[in-house]
Amino acid sequence: MKSPQPAGPGAGTTMRILRKQPTVSRRGFLRGGGLAAIGVTVVPAALAQPPREAMTASFRALGPATARTLVAISRDIFPHDKLSDRYYVDAIAPLEKSAAGDKATRALLQQGVAALDASARERFGRPYGELTREADRVALLQAIETTPFFQKVRGELVTGLYNNKAVWPLLGYEGSSWEKGGYLHRGFDDIDWL
Fold it and tell me: Residue ranges per domain, the chain?
């Protein structure tokens, strides 16, 4: 039996397979490599959160070390895992401003942080900002919660943190509603399962 012959144009000729390999010019290679290098260095740098040390370096009246401890205290008094240190640094900025204008406030804050660090060293062998267990830090704060130092820090943090409009969406708060007609007619009563 004979095998069937192909019919049509080019019948009986062998087919050549062309392998197209992409050619990259030197200019294209350098452009792609340059863009990749920019992506590797710029994008993570833009997304990276500066360390607490860098954010508190501008605190001249209180000093960066005191400011770092105040940020740690702030995170323990009002713990919100969704909030970065930047918001807590912003919340203690009024304390820095008060300390720059008033020697008594500066002394209260610096002495309060020093006493808290001393207490932490006495009980746990390291300063407050270096304690890793939250329960240890909270126990230290509970021991001083009636002091003027703690009351001053907590009082400033309430407004410094929760009046920051950049924090509101992170906490699920939509802001004031009275100028928009109040909550009653804006979805407050749209529970359909009651």
Answer: 52-173
